[in-house]
């Protein structure tokens, strides 16, 4: 919101600056104090607008940029597959892209321990193992908003195929 207002003020100040310069040059008259004040205000507004406006290049180069669900899905799919194998002691689990749904839950709080998880993603879907399809759900907590480069922990795991390794954490509380 602030960036949009800064950009708007920047454009208006450029127009005002050009108008005052043209008026001063075309009419070939002395510029009075009131006009100088408007010129100074326009220049200050341009400087503020130029320094506070965010550019798309700045947003793309930010290493802490949050992953959106679409970008996070391949990473979470791979993590789900390896953690199903590890937690349920299975070998050869496969998850296809169309078999998983990912949701960004934001910050959550464990009702039992009070621990706050800052970058929580919930994944559910199906995995294939030994010719059968089983459902699962898994909740991850990442230490960074960019899940591709983050360390993580599995904070919930449910599995319809084998109940081995499953566990629950009460994350129903949102952080205020």
Q: Which strand order does the major sheet show?
A: 4-3-2-1-5
- Name the assembly state: single chain
Helix/strand class: alpha+beta
Element order: H for helix, E for strand: HHHHEEEEE
Using DSSP, what is the number of strands? 5
Task: Report the sheet-strand fraction.
Answer: 25-35%
Main sheet makeup:
5 strands, antiparallel
What can you see in these coordinates?
- It is a single chain.
- The protein has 176 residues and is of the alpha+beta class.
- It has four helices and five strands.
- The protein has a five-stranded antiparallel β-sheet, covered by helices on one side.
- A hairpin with a 2-residue loop joins β2 and β3.
- α1 runs antiparallel to α2.
- The longest helix is centred in the N-terminal third of the chain and has 25 residues.
- It is elongated, with a radius of gyration of 27 Å.
Features:
5 strands, 5-stranded antiparallel sheet, 4 helices, 176 residues, single chain, alpha+beta
Fold topology:
Layout: H1 2-26, H2 33-52, H3 56-60, H4 69-88, E1 100-109, E2 116-129, E3 132-142, E4 152-159, E5 173-174
Antiparallel strand pairs: 1-2, 1-5, 2-3, 3-4
Helix pairs in contact: 1-2
């Amino acid at each position: 919101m602030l960036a949009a207002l800064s950009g708007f003020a920047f454009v208006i100040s450029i127009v005002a600056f050009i108008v005052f310069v043209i008026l001063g040059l075309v009419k070939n008259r002395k510029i009075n104090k009131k006009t100088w004040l408007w010129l100074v205000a326009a220049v200050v507004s341009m400087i503020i607008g130029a320094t506070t406006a965010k550019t798309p290049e700045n947003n793309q180069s930010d290493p802490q940029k949050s992953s959106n669900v679409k970008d996070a899905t391949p990473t979470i799919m791979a993590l789900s597959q390896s953690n199903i194998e590890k937690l349920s002691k299975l070998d050869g689990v496969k998850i296809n892209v169309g078999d998983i749904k990912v949701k960004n839950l934001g910050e959550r709080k464990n009702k039992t321990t009070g621990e706050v998880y800052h970058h929580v993603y919930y994944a559910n879907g199906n995995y294939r193992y030994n010719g059968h399809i089983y459902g699962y759900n898994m909740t991850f907590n990442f230490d960074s908003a960019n899940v591709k480069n983050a360390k993580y922990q599995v904070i919930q795991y449910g599995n319809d195929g084998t109940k081995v390794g499953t566990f629950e954490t009460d994350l129903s509380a949102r952080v205020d």
